[in-house]
Amino acid sequence: MQDEPSGAELLDVARQVLSREIAPTLTGRPRYLAAMVANAIGIVAREIEHGAAMRDALARAVSRIDPDATTADLAAAIRAGGHDADADLHAALVEATETAAAIWKPPPPGQ
Predict the structure, then answer these.
(1) What Pfam families is this protein classified in (predicted)?
(2) Does residue 94 lie within any of the structural domains?
């Protein structure tokens, strides 16, 4: 059983308070710093929530070349061109990339 709210949800509330209530009362560098901290909090919250999915997709991609491979091995194999027609590898890389993008740079609210 997981306690409610989750850590990710608590971080999201903290980010919202910082962004909507505290930052607007600031000017100049303090406002910029508050926005930067709010952005970092959002990234961490999304990583807590979706990080396992990204790691799983990347692990699936790496395992396509060798179960004991590393991401560096995967990068070298891709550069060597030996997996250009591997649709499963492509799908796993797309999934990992889309999940990472959602964590690091989510779409604006309402999109």
Answers:
(1) DUF6285
(2) yes
Confidence band (pLDDT; 50, 70, 90) for 2? low
Q: Is residue 111 part of a domain?
A: no
Spatial separation of the C-alpha atoms in residues 83 and 53, rounded to whole Å: 23
Q: Which domain holds residue 74?
A: 7-104
- Tell me the pLDDT tens digit for each residue of 78-106: 999 988 889 989 998 998 899 889 888 87
The pTM (predicted TM-score) of the whole model is 0.73
Report how far residue 54's alpha carbon sits from residue 96's, in angstroms, rounded to the nearest whole number.
5
- Could you tell me if residue 78 is inside a domain? yes
Torsion of CA 92, 84, 76, 79, to 10 degrees: -130
Q: At what angle do helices 28-63 and 7-17 cross, to 10 degrees?
A: 150
In a domain, 11, yes or no: yes
Residue type present at position 22: I
Helical residues (DSSP H) of the chain, grouped into ranges: 7-17, 28-63, 71-80, 87-104
